[in-house]
Amino acid sequence: MKINSHNPIGIFDSGIGGLTVANAVTRLLPNESIVYFGDTAHTPWGDKSTAAIQAYSIRICDMLLQQNCKLILIACNTASSAAYELVKEYLGNRAQLVDVIDPIVAHMREHYADKVIGLIGTKQTISSNIYKKKIDALNVGIQLQSVATPLLVPLIEEGFADSKITEETIRQYLSLPNLNNIEALILGCTHYPLIKNYILNFYQHKITIIDACEIVAHSVQGLLSFHNLLNRDTSSHKKIFYVSDYTATFEEHAKFFFSEAIHLEQYPLWDT
Ligand code: DGL
């Protein structure tokens, strides 16, 4: 099947988290059009079953394929851990695919050999052990220490990203013994860049906080360039946002990230 370089990039997440990655993609690749899908009707995904996350992901990919997306970016660690292989098989040669875990793992190999690294993420991401399996397979002496932080996504989606409750919740999680003595911390959830300041403050800026946004945007650029799919036309880029259920938090964040009037539509994943 012929994929056209003018076609948009499809990006999806359970809600607003993937906007952090979408923003990095559009900053790096300003000629690209994007179609963003936030599954606000089912957020948070992090405590859903693997089967449920796979079903949401496939349904969203169907919708993004209908929009002729040339590349689909799973802008969510939870879906990357639960559904990447399935989505890859499902897409076949209809669209390119990028997730948010493999680019981080490649980055770890380059920069963090022989270090003790922390990881925070949703229950699904942490219990899948996917980061540990992929990092252990690199065989570069990285020791990974993980903690699931399931309260953070609901706080962010409910509009409490900038609040005392979030600050205290972060303090409790990051004080757990498993995260003692780490030299860097992976934000294993695309919502967490929205609360990065509290995390940096907790560590008093003494350790590196690894957030996927720019790293993943470069992977998207590399893959599009490899397949000769970068949009060279500077005149025609668009951004469209879909949510499965309207939330004010989503609209506010989309406006904030893209500082322009945004086109937001409601698109229920299933007719009820
Ligand atoms: N942004 C998603 C991630 O990276 C959040 C998942 C959730 O909705 O719990 O894992």
Describe the secondary structure blueprint for this structure:
Elements: E1 9-13, H1 18-28, E2 34-38, H2 50-66, E3 71-74, H3 77-91, E4 96-98, H4 102-111, E5 116-121, H5 123-128, H6 130-138, E6 143-148, H7 152-157, H8 164-174, E7 184-188, H9 196-202, E8 208-210, H10 212-226, E9 239-243, H11 248-258, E10 263-266
Parallel strand pairs: 1-2, 1-3, 2-9, 3-4, 5-6, 5-7, 7-8, 9-10
Helix pairs in contact: 1-10, 2-3, 4-6
Bound molecules: D-glutamic acid (DGL).
The site of D-glutamic acid (DGL) has 16 residues, from helix 3.
Write structural notes for this entry:
The protein folds into two domains: 9-99 and 214-266, Rossmann fold (3-Layer(aba) Sandwich); 102-212, Rossmann fold, CATH 3.40.50.1860. Helices cover 43% and strands 17% of the residues. The chain contains eleven helices and ten strands. Helix 2 packs across helix 3 (77-91) and helix 4 packs parallel to helix 6 (130-138). The model has no long low-confidence stretch (mean pLDDT 95). The site of D-glutamic acid has 16 residues, from helix 3.
